[in-house]
Amino acid sequence: MERELFELNTQDPTVKPLATSFNSTEDHLNPDISDESVLGFRVGNLRFLLAANIFCEIVDQNKVSPLPNVQPWFSGVLNLRGDIVPIIDLHILLADGSTPLKNRHLLAIDKGKKTVAFWIDGYPQMLSPHFTSASAPDDLPDVLRQAITDYSRQDQHLWLTLSLDKLFKALSVHTVQDKD
């Protein structure tokens, strides 16, 4: 079975792939990634974790096309190498009271038709797998609580392990309830 590998289009300077853009089964391409490493990113006061073997990249924000009559947290879509990618603003969705940074980035997660992008604060970072178990915070919105699979602490920070499948399911229910 032939594997599809991502190749950076050097003609497009707006696409900035992360150093962690390759699957862990392709570690020979990036030896700094271990099977246990995780990718962390921040949105407001919350910190999220994704498995390091998920393809991620930073995408220039100028490509966002807003859509009419959608939820406020749905920023619009962008065309990423021929795939229409939905963009979610967790600041608005969670209404956590934090002010989005002026220097936000779009983090595109996964490849092809499964790609989704989130506005994040700062750049994502690779984290070592040395976490301690933690409990869920009381003030976590229900839509997000449904999408978190684990709560961990590292360096005094609470990290939430995010399941994209569970997040989309929670968002679809959340959206339907808002229309009722």
Please, could you describe this protein's structure?
The structure is a single chain. With 180 residues, this protein is mainly β. 14% of the residues lie in helices and 36% in strands. Strands 1, 2, 3, 4, 5, 6, 7, 8, 9, 10 and 11 form an 11-stranded mixed beta sheet that branches. It is globular. It starts with 14 loop residues before the first strand and ends with a helix. Residues 1-34 have low confidence and may be disordered.
Provide keyphrases for this structure.
180 residues; mainly beta; eleven-stranded mixed β-sheet; disordered N terminus
Secondary-structure element pattern, one letter each: EEEEEEHEEEHEEH
First CA to last CA: what distance? Answer: 47 Å
* Overall morphology: globular
Uncertain regions spanning at least 5 consecutive residues: 1-34
